[in-house]
Amino acid sequence: MLPRLIASDLDGTLLRNDLSVSPRTRRALDAVRAAGIPVVPVTARQPHGVKLIGQQAGFAEWALCSNGALAVHLSTGEVLFESLLGVEAQTALVQALLERVPDVVAVSIREAGEGFYAQAGYAALAAERDHKRDPRHMTALPLTEVLSSPSLKLALRHPTLTPADLLAEVRGLGLDGFHATHSGAPFVEVAAEGITKAAGLARLCAELGVAQENVLAFGDAPNDAEMLAWAGHGVAMANAHAEALAAADEVTLSNEEDGVAAVLERLVGDDKS
Asked: What residue stretch is flagged as signal peptide (predicted)?
């Protein structure tokens, strides 16, 4: 039986390493949409980052951004839901983390993904690829201002620690009130407690009347693991992190080999490899 909704991560999954949508993948996406199956990007990116590849992929309807914290319609701009990390929780986290790991810097993403409030020193560590924003145009705010309003997502990074190591430090604090993960980008991503791609996808599917067992999901990173486990059928890429591989029901080809397209072609009987 065909799924009723397809959910796909973007970077490292649907996109090739140069951040392009291959012609084969676009054909496969168009074929499943022609069969009446919506394809929802589920990503750590913000709406502007999805729109950068929207035309290539044919995305024009619902997207789940900021690791499931934001559901937005890409054409109308309608926000279906938005979950925010409160000031008290994010301040307690950052203060405790700085005592444990000095030199951490932060960015607060707000205003349905359009507001980007970077701490002084963050831009020096960033590349345009990280947030799909030119570091030269990033703010240089005091930490108190960065933390002064609730965040859709709080990004934390360190000049020398890897995201995995920094995430271990966050978890080692033993605090609650937030959910921390990483997506393969060079920073830790913090959202409100209970917010994951799986939680956001479950909420969107409830709004659209799609049952869990009728969802097909694709992913490659640790922040995809919950979604792959939640979906009726979860597919990890051959290039996936061990957490995503362990959560999946199936492993397809890598993102460089159009692994998403390979599965979608099988669904609609359209092998154009």
From this structure: none
